[in-house]
Amino acid sequence: MTSTVNAPAAISASPAKGLVCRACGAEYPLIAQHACYECFGPLEVAYDADLLARVTREQIEAGPQNIWRYAGLLPAGQDPATRVTLDPGLTPLVSAPALAAAVGLRAPLWVKDDSANPTHSFKDRVVSVALTAARGLGFTRFACASTGNLANSVAAHAARAGAPSIVFIPYDLEQGKVVTTAVYGGDLVAIEGSYDDVNRLCGELVETDEFEDTAFVNVNVRPFYAEGSKTLGYEVAEQLGWRIPAQVVIPMASGELLTKVDKAFAELVEIGLCEAPEDGWTVFGAQSAGCNPIATALQSGTDEITPVKPTGIAKSLNIGDPAAGAYAIEAVRRTGGWMDYADDDEIRAGIRLLAETTGVFAETAGGTTVAVLKKLVESGKLDPEKETVVYNTGEGLKTLDAISELVGPTHRIKPSLKGAREAGLLG
Amino acid sequence: MTSTVNAPAAISASPAKGLVCRACGAEYPLIAQHACYECFGPLEVAYDADLLARVTREQIEAGPQNIWRYAGLLPAGQDPATRVTLDPGLTPLVSAPALAAAVGLRAPLWVKDDSANPTHSFKDRVVSVALTAARGLGFTRFACASTGNLANSVAAHAARAGAPSIVFIPYDLEQGKVVTTAVYGGDLVAIEGSYDDVNRLCGELVETDEFEDTAFVNVNVRPFYAEGSKTLGYEVAEQLGWRIPAQVVIPMASGELLTKVDKAFAELVEIGLCEAPEDGWTVFGAQSAGCNPIATALQSGTDEITPVKPTGIAKSLNIGDPAAGAYAIEAVRRTGGWMDYADDDEIRAGIRLLAETTGVFAETAGGTTVAVLKKLVESGKLDPEKETVVYNTGEGLKTLDAISELVGPTHRIKPSLKGAREAGLLG
Questions:
Q1: Which end of chain A has less neighbouring CB within 10 Å, N or C?
Q2: B14-52 residues labelled b (16+ CB within 10 A) or e (exposed)
Q3: Which of B184, B201, B361 is opposite residue A420, by nearest beta carbon?
Q4: CA A33/CA A30 separation, integer angstroms
Q5: CA dihedral of A249, A254, A260, A263, whole degrees rounded to 10
Q6: What ipTM is given for this predicted complex?
Q7: Do B5 and B137 contact (CB within 8 A), yes or no?
Q8: Please, are residues B157 and B186 in contact by the beta-carbon 8 Å criterion?
């Protein structure tokens, strides 16, 4: 089914005025629907420009220390009582001078560390917005197709809200992401296939009568879900003192996060909360070599994405048929950026480099982004003289296997001064 | 060595006026020393009451969103430029009505979720204060004896500060805690012994010339380190609207965290930032059955701690010879509380109960505390009609092994509607 429940008060009170097709511009009310009836293009939330323009820095700064300080710019959750949320967001923006030096940047470099969210990935942002909208639309069960982080987040959100959840994952996920979903007690369905198979099945299930009460955060309420990523743009700008950075490097799975950070910056300028940097901002995208359909398309000069069968350790980025790929390419081209990809060894090195220089322990997606940052500087695509923000979207504890063979104790000794001396610890 | 470097400006400017022996009251300047020269009793930071009394709610509320908002009540870090820190703290205080109902509480219950810290345990608080004091005292290398969480935190702090670190751990720690220390690139020494063996060796190393430049956060700068835990008391009171909760349940390893939360509440009353609850506050302590020397002593009516050889899954609580045990007993007796302990199965059940009812995924220490909360209600030791805060001090991702056999996918299916139907997902 595609719910056509009318938007209730909470959503009506939001600045969102409807859904609009990104491809053909067809307009829809605020319903649980993600693809255009006309052209099958993806739907996106459209806002009332006058309502957005009423939001002030002062309002935001007086708000809670989480994503809901930006409620005036989001499609749902204006009334705190309506929120289905773990209160994610306002994660640290970490100054990274040692990382800058290591990769050859001569301007300030920042790491936006979204591993600090409640379930330790940026997915808490999108899930909070999606489930809040979903509850407003009358759904009572929460679901998702996931590469892992989303599963953790949906299951945890449902547990806190006291609602049932059903989460679909590929059967070969990292154990850290399986246990961390299962522990919350909802249904957890392992699918014998890839993420793209999981996603396809969820697209079929959502049409069945048995799932009429079920919001799949990244299927039928996907337009609301996607808007949650805008907060990763707002926060960086606010944390820089209401300044948009000249360059951002963002990991890509579906490509949606990248497009929404770009959208957030555009909104901030449009409503007068920030000025654009002198030369505008430039957006860079990072993929893994095992799943690089967006970067490959951009580098080939096309915006036709050829789906791939993902491989490699960056499983949270392994979406072989990325829904927002063409829009990510558009944003990168428009802003003068570039995309690149890193292989598994480079990703592992990226994780270690980030940890050693900043104290931030990232999952493979973060390692990918740092590795690509390094490549972009080396290739001259990224300007080493301009302020740059690199996004870490997840937590190293969830992908320990990726580096557990590479790092460990530097010494093993008996519990005595003699043992310490023999190991060379006493000169 | 025991450094006698004079306290530099940063520490002089703090409200701390010296160290005092908890046993005999002997006084010392602010030096790197943790045991009394007179009686070998533990040293504690003493404050200038007039300086503490100058701190206002408004000052604190205008401060940063981390522990440093309480700098006026801490022994170091008043000048931001002097801090060696990941900026931990101001972690969520989560309302837990479903958990309250599950354990039989009829008053508000809150979970103070310290897994939200940068390295996902409360240790970031104590390490930030210890290393900031250590740098002020002239130390250039950072070290610790650790059951895991402290190792993560010291290594990460050192990486961010660009300083060398050397971390000592028992050889049999959970992999999650080993990799998460090693990834930051410092020295990591695995000791063939228990935590108590590790701690003993560090006490010997700190006296050698080769370690003269080295601050062991929980040995020679332990008095500063311990003060960091006070922030877990301040924050709960501030987050409750400057109100001290009637009851708190706190996990115990050395017992120090419990004594410092109690100390924090006392300070808040003394300096006029909070009123005491009508009947005062009551402090409860939680240990595991595999390492329960403090709880056993209390229950036996003595304050003589008999050291034990720790066993069981709650490794971060496995301190068999707890340095602050007698002081924890004193605080619990004085406030009319109690201590209890949970076995491994109860700890696992505690982790699951917390996750299912709140969306918070705790490590074994958190499972222990929730399990003990349940026991305390059942035994009538904790008043089910009074507001209660339970402390979760660490992250479930670090102790996945504890529950990975117990939870997992509820279904495994082929990627088709037929597969979903056969698994009963379509009615």
A1: C
A2: bbbbbbbbbbeeeebebbbbbbbeeeeebbbbbbeeebb
A3: B201
A4: 8
A5: 90
A6: 0.94
A7: yes
A8: no
Mutate one of B127, B191, B421 to test the A interface: name it (highest A CB count within 10 A). Answer: B191
* Token pair belonging to A288: 């893994």
Q: In what side-by-side order are the strands of the sheet with A27-28?
A: A27-28, A16-21, A43-47
Q: Do B396 and A200 touch (CB under 8 A)?
A: no
DSSP string, A4-72: -PPP-HHHHTSSEEEEEETTT--EE-S-S--B-TTT-PBEEEEE-HHHHHT--HHHHHTS-SSGGGGGG
Q: Looking at the partner chain, which of A204, A351, A420 has a beta carbon nearest the beta carbon of B183? A: A351
User: Cβ(A273)–Cβ(A339) under 8 Å?
Assistant: no
Q: Above pLDDT 70, what percent of chain A?
A: 97
> Which of these, A262, A147, A283, A257, lies nearest to A202 by C-alpha position?
A147
- Residue B162 and residue A98: Cβ atoms within 8 Å? yes
Residue of B nearest to A212 (CA): B426
Q: Is B340 helix (H, G, I), strand (E, B) or coil?
A: strand
Q: To the nearest whole angstrom, how far is the Cα of B157 from the nearest Cα of chain A?
A: 6
Q: Which residues contact A141 (CB under 8 A, 6 or more apart)?
A: A163, A164, A165, A166, A211, A213, A214, A215
Average pLDDT over residues A298-324: 95
Nearest to A412 among B116, B171, B416 (CB): B171
Residues of A within 8 A of B169 (CB-CB) are 409
**Which pLDDT belongs to residue A49?**
94
Which of A124, A347, A352, A356 would best serve as a mutation to test chain B binding (most B beta carbons within 10 A)? A356
Pair of tokens at residue B420: 């979903």
Length of chain B in terms of residues written: 427
Please name the residue that has the structure tokens 């390295």. B119
The answer to whether B375 and B354 are in contact (CB under 8 A) is no
The residue type of B227 is: E
CATH topology of domain A93-119+227-402: Rossmann fold (3.40.50)
Task: With cut-offs at 50, 70 and 90, classify the pLDDT of residue B172.
Answer: confident
Token code pair at residue B303 = 């304050």
Q: Are A144 and A150 in contact (CB under 8 A)?
A: yes
The separation between the first and the last C-alpha atoms of chain B, rounded to the nearest angstrom, is 71
Burial code (b: 16+ CB inside 10 Å, e: under 16) for A288-313 equals bbbbbbbbbbbeeeeeebeebebebb
Among residues A323, A334, A251, the alpha carbon closest in space to that of A288 is found at A251
Contact A91, A123 (CB under 8 A): no
Predicted local confidence at residue A2, as pLDDT: 33
If we measure between CA atoms, which residue out of A353, A352, A348 comes closest to residue A364?
Answer: A348
Give domain limits for chain B.
93-120+227-402
Cα–Cα distances in Å, from B209 out to A425, B97, B165, B206, B278?
11, 55, 17, 8, 53
Q: How many residues does chain A have?
A: 427
Could you say which of 3.40.50.1820, 3.40.50.1100, 1.10.150.450, 1.10.1270.20 is the CATH number of the domain covering B93-120+227-402? 3.40.50.1100
Q: Taking residues A23-36, what's their average pLDDT?
A: 95
> Are the CB atoms for B233 and B261 separated by under 8 Å?
yes
